[in-house]
Amino acid sequence: MPLANPAEAGHGENLLEVDNLCLRFGGLTVLDAVSLRVPAGGITALIGPNGAGKSSLFNAISGCYRPQVGTITFAGREITRLPTSRRAALGVARTFQNIALFPGLTVLDNIKLGSHVHLHTGLLAAGFYLGRARREELRLHTELERDVIDQLGIRDILRVPVATLPYGQQKRVELARALAMGPRLLLLDEPVAGMNRPDRAEMVRLIRNLQQQRGMTVLLVEHDMGVVMDISEQVIVLDFGRVITAGTPAAVREDAAVIAAYLGTEAQQSQHGADEQGPS
Amino acid sequence: MTDKRPARSAAATTLLTVAVITFPMAGNSYHLHMVCLIGINVISATGLNLLTGCAGLVSLGHAAFMGVGAYGVAWFGTHLGLPFYLCLPLGGLLAAGVGMIAGLPSFRLKGLYLAIASLAAQFILSFVFNEWEPVTGGRSGVTLAPAEIAGLRLTTEREMYYLIAVITVAALLFARNLFRTRVGRAFIALRDRDIAAEVLGVDLRRYKLMAFGVSSFYAGVAGGLMAYFFKVVAPGQFGFQLSLFFLAAIVVGGLGTVQGAVLGAIFMTMTPEVLSWVAGPFGPVATGFLAPVREVLFGLLIIVFLIFEPRGLVGIGSRVRSWHPRSWAQRRSR
Amino acid sequence: MEFFLEVSLVGLAVGGVYALIALGYVIVYRTTRVVNFAHGNIMMFGAYFFFTFATLLDLPWGVALVLALIATALLGTGIERVLLRPMLGRTPVVAVMATFGLVFVLHGSAQIIWTANDFFLPSIFPNRPIVIGTMYIPANTGYGALIALVAIGALLALLRFTRGGLAMRAAASDQVAASALGINVPATFNLTWACAAASAALAGVVVGSITTLNPNLGMIGLSVLGVVILGGLDSLAGAILAGLIVGWLEAITGFYLSASYKDVVPFVVLLVILMIRPHGLLGAPTVERL
């Protein structure tokens, strides 16, 4: 089975290594011995037909699913059994395919929640809101405005309840929240899905900026092949829970197995119609 | 955010402070009695609203935690001879401890199953109140000496009034402040989408326990104040009915907002009084029907609010002023 | 040992009645995803309807019983139509909270209509206790359990073999799919509430015969709610099993410890079971997939 070769990807070190990962729900095998490498500082794309296990892999990396077999190593540390909330502190951030903002919070508070692990205010300090707790909130506010809010151009909507925002802006807020986590690894689940052309171009520019200016490592799931081929340095193809190939965009485009499996299923899918959705 | 708001809120604060301080001069002892009860109920309802309205953990045992605080205060005062200013916070802490133990099932249970687990806590604690005679005095309960601060015995409604007013204001400020910080945000997050919250680094267990702890601390302090106010603690005061009373208060007032708990507690405390003023002139037959009529009315209010105005009295208020409602979480954080 | 068996038998008889009450909760929950906290109070109304027809209007008890079942079923339908229908499509927790409101309304109304006094239901069971060997089961408990068993059998048959029962089960598994198949989901909900209310009425008459009739009769519904959770909210078999277990436990603790332990032991057991099996003994675990 062709694995992502770090040397081939052209970067020194892998930030994320997944080895022989198996995930089952009852009798259903969702991930079948998946192994892959995500080089530090690069953009890696994960593609494959619906139901191939892309989102499940994301869920395993971020800790929502517990795989039965295999290991996940992040920055040299094994995190396979680490509690979900601890992974955030290590620097794993993600967005969700179906946008998981908190409807009870404003845009600003959603973003601030991203910084949760970097804050220290405890219950009592919070309730009295004197000195340190107050300073911490104010400092957080300035930092977020400088590093996240202005970059994403969402200053005008900070006080708005998230539920009233249009789709494209919700996606942007979710990205802002992930950035507020100050992550080393950013997992983006279909970042441009459902977006119109200008929004899509803007999102691509943002992702590229994050990688180039902040040295962030990005792993993204995306169906838009134009975007995938455009921004990623490594493309990993998943089908039926297995990695069928990995390599540079150009190499993957030429790969016979990909064309057969991927386009084959694609054609099959269009026969089934639009309502077919794989488990995400 | 308009510029008028800070000025307006400063004016409102001043007005409210003056009203709170001067009220005892205007009101008679009945008025004071009612306001004291309202204060106690506001504290308790605020606690329940933190747990159920904000963190989304439905509790059917809130009254039992008030009971723990009340019995705790009585026991610390009578058996350990501790002064009042230690008894009250200790009573609150005791309730918080018991509340956190009762909150442990929330690690594994969600939604209705968790609600029923809290119902179990209610019944088990009621049982303890009734049966653990050396501490709780069994069915007849215990009496306690009036609160005493610096040699001043708080025996009358007027003296209790100031104590309760100060604690109520402090409790409300504390609750509001929580929602300016990461603690309050984490509560809302675990209510809205617990899995996403966890991915963002919110330790769900920690915050669930914290919510149970704070909420029961509020209940315990309210229960302790109730003990000092009535100078007697009996198991019948803290039954399941009272838990439902507070649940009704936050539903009617508005789930998840400070103002909601306040409005709900006022509303639920005053409704029976208003009813008896109305029924008074119709003689003893009408007053005989008071209790059941009150119950029916409570029930109908809960139902009507749930169907027509899920945001409660807060929602009605904001509709009247056609002003966008701000939940705790949406408050400006500076 | 002799005592143990006798106490156990009485406990199981009471447990049979619990099972009938528990089934009412489960039927409503399975179809509508609402836990009806007012189920006990609907039961109490059923007992009062029977009392009204049999004692106040002096009808033969058989007629009175049928009329009481019909009246309570209508009450159930009315509640569904007025209270729950407007909440269709909102989160079930809201509807559950509304049933708290219903608890107050029904409890208060009963006091207004029938006062808070204790009444005795006309005896419908033979007066002689049931004697098995040397064991002795009080008549009301014993015959009450028999009635409960028959009612449980009838309910299960109704769910299993009739069109309405099929619709209820279909709506239980998938509301959207059920309506796509031409099942009238609101009508099915209505039917469900009617069935649950009628079964509650029967249970109310049985419980009212064992104890006395007053507006607090419905409180037993809360203990039975513990039974329902113990068995698993969505499991018919679980409700029956847990009903028997709790009835037996109550009798045993009541006999060997003291009567006051009776009310608390089921809840302690409930907590322990829930910590081990968060969805009850036979409830279906929900696999959480994102």
Question: Could you describe the 3D structure shown?
Answer:
The complex is a heterotrimer of chains A (280), B (334) and C (290). Chain A is of the alpha/beta class. Chain A has eleven helices and ten strands. In chain A, 46% of the residues are buried. Chain B has a domain of 224 residues. In chain B, a hairpin with a 2-residue loop joins strand 2 and strand 3. The two termini of chain B are 12 Å apart. Chain B contains 15 helices and four strands. Chain C has a two-stranded antiparallel sheet. The N and C termini of chain C lie far apart (54 Å). Chain C is 71% helix and 2% strand. Chain C has one domain: ABC transporter involved in vitamin B12 uptake, BtuC. Chain C has eleven helices and two strands, in the order H-H-H-H-E-E-H-H-H-H-H-H-H. With 290 residues, chain C is mostly helical. The chains are: A alpha/beta (280), B mainly alpha (334), C mainly alpha (290). At the B-C interface, helix 5, helix 11 and helix 14 of B face helix 4, helix 9 and helix 11 of C.
Give a short synopsis of this structure:
Chain A has 280 residues and is an alpha/beta fold. In chain A, 42% of the residues lie in helices and 22% in strands.
Query: Beta-sheet strand percentage of chain A?
Result: 15-25%
Beta strands of chain A, count: 10
Gross morphology of chain A: globular
Full CATH superfamily name of chain A? P-loop containing nucleotide triphosphate hydrolases
Estimated helix fraction of chain B: over 70%
The helix fraction of chain A, in percent, is 40-55%
CATH topology descriptor of chain A? Rossmann fold
Name the structural class of chain B: mainly alpha
Please describe the topology of this protein.
The complex is a heterotrimer of chains A (280), B (334) and C (290).
Chain A: H1 6-9, E1 14-25, E2 28-39, E3 43-47, H2 54-62, E4 69-74, E5 77-78, H3 84-90, E6 92-94, H4 107-114, H5 123-128, H6 131-152, H7 167-180, E7 185-189, H8 197-214, E8 217-221, H9 225-231, E9 234-239, E10 242-247, H10 249-254, H11 256-272
Parallel strand pairs in A: 3-8, 3-9, 6-7, 7-8
Antiparallel strand pairs in A: 1-2, 1-4, 4-5, 9-10
Helix pairs in contact in A: 4-7, 6-7
Chain B: H1 4-26, H2 29-54, H3 62-78, H4 84-103, H5 111-131, H6 133-136, E1 142-143, E2 147-149, E3 152-154, H7 157-178, H8 182-192, H9 194-199, H10 204-230, E4 232-233, H11 240-253, H12 258-279, H13 283-288, H14 290-308, H15 312-320
Antiparallel strand pairs in B: 1-4, 2-3
Helix pairs in contact in B: 2-7, 2-10, 2-11, 2-12, 3-4, 3-5, 3-10, 4-10, 7-10, 8-10, 11-12, 12-14
Chain C: H1 2-32, H2 39-56, H3 61-84, H4 92-114, E1 130-132, E2 135-137, H5 139-161, H6 163-173, H7 175-180, H8 185-210, H9 220-231, H10 236-256, H11 265-276
Antiparallel strand pairs in C: 1-2
